[in-house]
Amino acid sequence: MSKFLLKKTLVIGTILVLLGMVILPSISSINNQFAPLKNSFSKKVKFNPFKEGWEFRKMITINHNDVVADLVNFPVLVRTIDYDLRDKAQDDGDDILFMKHPGKAEQLFHEIESYDGDSGELVAWVNIPRLSSHSDTKFYMYYGNPNCSSQGYHEKVWDSNYKSVWHLAEKGTGLRFDSTINSNDASPKDYEGDEGVDYGKINGADEFDGDNDHLRTGVSFDYDYRTISFWINTDIKPSSDPNTILSQNAHTLKYGLIYANIQSDGLHAKAGGEGPGEEFIFDININSWYFVQLIRDHNVTRYYVNGNLIDTGNSGDIGAEWYPNPNLVIGASRYYDRLYDGIIDELRVSDIVRSSDWINTSYNTMNDPLNFLSFDSEEKPLQKTLNFISFQSFLEHYPMLEKLLTLLLL
After folding, report:
1. What is the C-alpha separation between 254 and 256, in angstroms, rounded?
2. Highest mean pLDDT among 17-21, 330-334, 379-383, 394-398
3. Which range, of 36-40, 148-152, 369-373, averages the lowest pLDDT?
4. Quick one: which of 138, 184, 179, 185 has its CA closest to 159?
């Protein structure tokens, strides 16, 4: 064998040894490590999913043009139909998780509202710690781990000012669950089992027949500062009694009257007190979706539709009159009559005044999630290793090997 061929053989052999020493063990550890539940249920943790048994990831980019201002702990809607998820994630989506950065990073709290393993359709809410209006925010979705338990933690997606979040995605006659830590689940009344429908604005929703079905929350919201938001799609504009979307009584000096209903001239609402507070009126079209926010800011009420401030008024006096039921009712009046005919989706109650920036961005992420964010192509661990570690940079970490190769090539 010539001296040149000997050197060439030694170089190739050395390269193969290096690949075997570094890359192959990495692949082995990725494939063989058991993936424990990483969410501590008390705080976020840092780890590298690729080293804990996850096999795939995709970068998700939030369009900063749809973010009105910088926001903190904002719940972003992640909605997609992904064939890679269908083929590689667990059937129930338990292995789907979201990370702040690639590599070793902070896990983001998320809630899966629904996941269809047959189609890869995912509807999830992810708490983004800092959402920028100046540059695109990027985070990462991992999947493809058959050994892990659920990575979701829905209570931490919603900040402590959310008192109730009802997605209304359930089917049948069972409870409509509150996703916040408060567990203010709503009880269906006179449901026949067909109220839960798939054609809500976000995902599933409840369709009220205007006859007798409604929801009782058993919760009273008794603060001067509040924000109530919901999506509606109305079937009719009644010519006589209003169709009530939601209602809460006045009850002692702590409670203010809250209601929203549909009348012949459109949407009527009030977020103020039992007194001469101003009522909000807004014309709507039937069979169309509207995102509505009712805000009481102590002595001021604000009303938003589809992210836009429509009206501001005086909240009126705080009432002291007793009514039979001080709790929030969905789909009916406080007397369980004047029932709503149409669809209600994603009803939320906060005990603070949400800013116009928060409201507008909330509308953007829910109204058009496909424009609000985008998905990059699938990545695997080996791809990332080869993309980010060049052979030269590898040699810089091992100077003795670099000297050896230099001598062999002389």
Report:
1. 7
2. 330-334
3. 36-40
4. 179
Question: Is 381 buried (19+), middle (13-18) or exposed (0-12) by CB count in 10 A?
Answer: buried
Cα separations in angstroms, 133 against 62, 67, 71, 107, 108? 10, 5, 8, 22, 19
Residue 197 is inside which H or E element, if any? strand 196-197
CB 76 within 8 A of CB 54: no
Question: What predicted TM-score, i.e. pTM, was given to this entire model?
Answer: 0.83
Q: How many residues does the chain have?
A: 410
Which carries the bigger pLDDT value, residue 48 or residue 409? 48
162-351 CATH: 2.60.120.200
User: Per-domain residue ranges for the chain?
Assistant: 3-32+385-409, 46-158+367-379, 162-351
Which residue, among 295, 274, 316, has the nearest Cα to 226 in the 3D structure?
Answer: 295
Burial bucket for residue 91 (CB in 10 Å: 0-12, 13-18, 19+): exposed
Question: Cβ distance 317 to 334 under 8 Å?
Answer: no
Between the alpha carbon of residue 76 and those of residues 63, 116, 202, the distances in Å are: 12, 20, 12
The pLDDT score that the predictor gives to residue 77 is 98
Q: Decide if 268 contacts 274 (C-beta within 8 A).
A: no
Give the separation between CA 103 and CA 389, rounded to whole angstroms. Answer: 13
Calpha distance 65→68 (Å, rounded): 7
